[in-house]
Specification:
Number of helices: 3
Shape: globular
Oligomer: single chain
Number of strands: 2
Distance between the termini: 26 Å
Length: 78
């Protein structure tokens, strides 16, 4: 696993939502989808990463990733 994946997974577990723009800024990667695949391989059995597509006012579509618990709870940092 990469350090980028480690940081991504830590942020998702802390309740952050991550977009490709965030990934470039925070982790220095333009390959967020690849890092998500790696992160999914490291999840606990009760965790899942969801992808949600959002249309921006400009008409562009962006995918946002977040971590949820299998019981439906969103991971939140305390």
């Amino acid at each position: 696993m990469t350090g980028q994946t480690d940081r991504l997974l830590a942020d998702l577990r802390a309740g952050d939502v991550v977009t490709p723009g965030d990934a470039l800024e925070r982790y220095g990667t333009m390959r967020l989808a690849a890092r998500i695949v790696e992160a999914r391989e490291r999840l606990e059995p009760d965790e899942a990463i969801l992808a949600e597509r959002h249309v921006l006012p400009s008409g562009k579509t962006v995918t946002k990733y977040r971590l949820v618990r299998r019981d439906g709870q969103i991971a939140l940092s305390l």
